[in-house]
What does this fold into?
Amino acid sequence: VQLQACGGGLVQAGGSLRLSCAVSGLTFRRYAVGWFRQAPGKEREFVGAVSDNGARKDYAESVKGRFTIGRQNTENSAYLQMNNLQVEDTGVYYCAVRDTWVRGIMSTSSMRYWGKGTQVTVSS
It folds into this structure.
């Protein structure tokens, strides 16, 4: 199983980035996808998630209204559209999958497979 997140970079506050997560080695349409981030010196935290069929989504309060999660099961990929980025959004962003949907915050320990992260840096 492989998950590869990409699309990170350096952006000014107020800007946008779109992260992608390419998944292989499993039946993607059967898995929920979660996005997480980790800032320097902090624990990895939940950003948002989308259910296996894309019908259900949940977001951390800190990103609601600014971030949008989606997926394309025909392409075995998911995305995280980030708008109005703020300095506090800086961190390494990870995608992960689990085989059941849970409403609300997904814990890091509940995710089955993880990808390598992509760095997002927001400057003031």
In short: The chain has no helices and eleven strands.
